[in-house]
Design brief:
By secondary structure, the protein is α/β, with parallel strands linked by helices. 41% of the residues lie in helices and 24% in strands. A 5-stranded mixed sheet has the order 4-3-5-14-6. It has a 5-stranded mixed sheet with strand order 11-8-12-7-13. It is globular and about 70 Å long. Helix 5 links the parallel strand 3 and strand 4. The chain is built from 10 helices and 14 strands.
Length: 301
């Protein structure tokens, strides 16, 4: 069995939710697709897919396997593309989407270096906290702040960012300082709209994981607005370090429940296709990976 080819077939089945659709997409026979999936499951000694007469879905083991192999195959394709097109110079318009906070605080600082290295690439950077449709809106690369990149996109991890709970000294003087996670239920907690289940805050601390249901007078779709509301004394905010780090360092915000931390979030560069990756896209993603490697970025401590 060609393991890499079997991985590609598995990815196609997972993304098309069916053997026949995957076979059509890869120009293979349904028999060949089925045979390779069976051989892969036998090799791994685990079931990767649930089969019904109507559709195919990932098992829990299959979902975990998919997350790993889709990036592995993407990196392999990138390596092969780099070798096969090493004479091509990155050039042309590169459309990039990024969240507002990350774009302002972190991304702008690395663009000058990329521009100096690849002057023939013109960057068109769009900042938005909403989840854009990369294909429909024509973006080559998008930065996603998440712990679960969309399965239909290729993702390369850039870094992790701590997520912190904080509030202004004025708010804490007025409302009191939470001493245990359960105390958050009695406070004004400012929620970020684009987080599913944003009213349930997960925290990890000395006694393990707890989930606290919170409430507050403000819900917004931008981390900067929530930070400013927290600075104005409106309540407790939960935001990545790159949004609140400067205000914390200056004492304008104070960390709340420092022994209890929300899980960190991953920062990913995502793109839509593994096939024939354009040099401008590959070079930009490689630049970001190097720029945010451990020890190189001051915004992630």
């Amino acid at each position: 069995m060609d393991t890499i080819e079997a991985m590609r077939v598995f990815i196609a089945v997972a993304e098309h939710s069916g053997f026949s659709a995957a076979a059509d997409a890869m120009d293979l026979s349904s028999v060949s697709v089925t045979r390779q999936i069976v051989a892969l499951e036998k090799r791994l000694n685990t079931r990767l897919l649930n089969r019904t007469t109507r559709r195919v879905s990932l098992t829990s083991a299959g979902a975990a396997y998919y997350q790993r192999v889709v990036q592995l195959v993407a990196e392999l394709d990138d390596i092969e593309a780099e070798v096969s097109s090493h004479t091509l110079v990155p050039a042309g318009l590169l459309r990039v989407n990024a969240p507002v906070g990350f774009g302002v605080e972190c991304l702008g600082a690395v663009l000058a270096g990329y521009n100096a290295q690849y002057p023939q690439v013109k960057l068109d950077l769009s900042l938005s906290d909403r989840m854009v449709d990369m294909v429909e809106e024509g973006f080559d690369v998008s930065i996603r702040i998440t712990n679960q990149p969309a399965p239909n996109l290729i993702a390369r991890k850039l870094t992790d960012s701590r997520v912190l709970l904080c509030a202004s000294p004025e708010y804490l003087a007025r409302a009191g300082t939470p001493l245990i996670p359960a105390d958050l239920a009695g406070h004004e907690c400012l929620a970020y709209s684009y987080v599913l289940g944003g009213e349930n805050w997960s925290l990890h601390g000395p006694s393990g994981k707890v989930i606290v249901r919170v409430d507050g007078a403000l819900r917004a779709n931008n981390g900067y607005l929530l930070r400013e509301a927290a600075l104005a004394g409106m309540g407790i905010v939960r935001e990545p370090e790159f949004v609140v780090g400067e205000a914390l360092a200056e004492g304008r915000l104070v960390q709340v429940l420092p022994d209890w931390s929300p899980p960190p979030v991953g920062v990913y560069a995502v793109y839509t296709s593994r096939n024939h990756l354009a040099p401008k896209v590959r070079s930009f993603i490689d630049w970001l990976v190097n720029a945010f490697a451990p020890g190189t970025s001051a915004v992630f401590r």
